[in-house]
Amino acid sequence: MRPSDETFNGEMSIQRWVSDSFPSGIHQVADSNLVMPGEEQIDLKMQCLLSVMELALRCTLVKPDARISMKDALSTLKKGCAPICSIASCMLLDFICWSC
């Protein structure tokens, strides 16, 4: 789906779509190439994906003063991914954990 998709008009935004799908329907909103069924260490990869998506939702809240600061977001990202980066390797981790 793209931001210009007809789904995202009126009250429905990408942030709301992801938020409504989180966490049980995350596989419907995430790129299927990030975590594929049958992959090694899929539980760790899903844990990382869920952590990153939760952080992304906190960064994109409607009210700017309710959003997490970028400093705190980076700190959260490093803390959440660092243990996983040392154990698992995948496209998702390579993309989001470049600073670990």
TrEMBL record:
One of its GO terms (cellular component) is membrane. InterPro entries: LRR_receptor-like_kinase (IPR051564). This is Uncharacterized protein. It comes from Solanum bulbocastanum.
